[in-house]
Amino acid sequence: MHLPVLLPLRLENVGFAVGAHRIIDDVSFTLDATARTVIVGPNGAGKSVLLRLCHGLLEPTSGRIRWNGPEPKGSPRRQAMVFQRPVLLRRSALANVTHALGVARVPSGEREARARDALAKVGLGTLARQPARVLSGGEQQRLALARAWALRPEIVFLDEPTANLDPSATWEIEKVISAMHAGGTKTVMITHNLGQARRLGDEILFLHQGRLVERAPADRFFTRPASADAARFLEGELPW
């Protein structure tokens, strides 16, 4: 079956409020399939809420979010999200991935081979039978990435995937994210690590107080920010 292309993803005057508190305020942008997108901003800017809106975990309270083409009903999902603290099942690494494939409606006959391939891609092929709970923090996050990659997504949303990891584990995660991009998956990532944003981002979306203040190529954003708020953020004058 020929599946429609999901991207671009368009946000049109999107807002999200809880009561009188506006967390996302009139945000508009389009995500295409090429650039690696990194979202940065101070604490409380609304970054994680924005990512959840894009992924469909939250519904906007104003504006609209439109994919180029819908995911056909009953077919495997073609977008994925990896959270800062992955929730793992009390099963083996392999079973965690095959379960995710089942939830995503991948045919049962394909699941184990796809799961093993994904585990090998993230460097966990030899740990397929290990209980997920005994893996290190970095290995658990790579397992979460394997669950997403096994879906063969057109786009993956990453919410601070290296938070609280040591430099070695962070490097391993960055390798996987780069490989996902090289394999044709669009990556949209939140990070507080500006060095990481430089390494993994082609474009930067700077969010402040729920508004998209600036969008720019990564090299220009870090050398010549166009807004005073972005300049203050890069100088460390806004709370992280």
Strand fraction: 15-25%
Q: What pattern of helices and strands is seen along the backbone?
A: EEEHEEHHHEHEHEEHH
Spatial ordering of strands, largest sheet: 5-6-7-3-8-9
Q: Count the beta strands.
A: 9
How many H/I helices? Answer: 8
Structural class: alpha/beta
Major sheet, described briefly?
6 strands, mixed
Distance between the termini: 46 Å
Classify the helix fraction into a percent range: 25-40%
Computed Rg: 18 Å
Tell me the overall shape: globular
Describe the protein's architecture and organization.
The protein is of the alpha/beta class and 240 residues long. 35% of the residues lie in helices and 24% in strands. The protein contains eight helices and nine strands. It has helices at 47-55, 93-103, 108-121, 137-150, 167-182, 194-200, 218-223, 228-234; strands at 9-18, 21-31, 37-40, 62-67, 79-82, 155-159, 186-190, 203-208, 211-217. The strands form two sheets. A six-stranded mixed β-sheet has the order 5-6-7-3-8-9, with helices on both faces. Helix 2 (93-103) packs across helix 3 (108-121), helix 3 crosses helix 4 and helix 4 (137-150) packs parallel to helix 5 (167-182). The longest helix is centred in the last third of the chain and has 16 residues, at 167-182. The protein is globular, with a radius of gyration of 18 Å. The N and C termini lie far apart (46 Å). The model has no long low-confidence stretch (mean pLDDT 93).
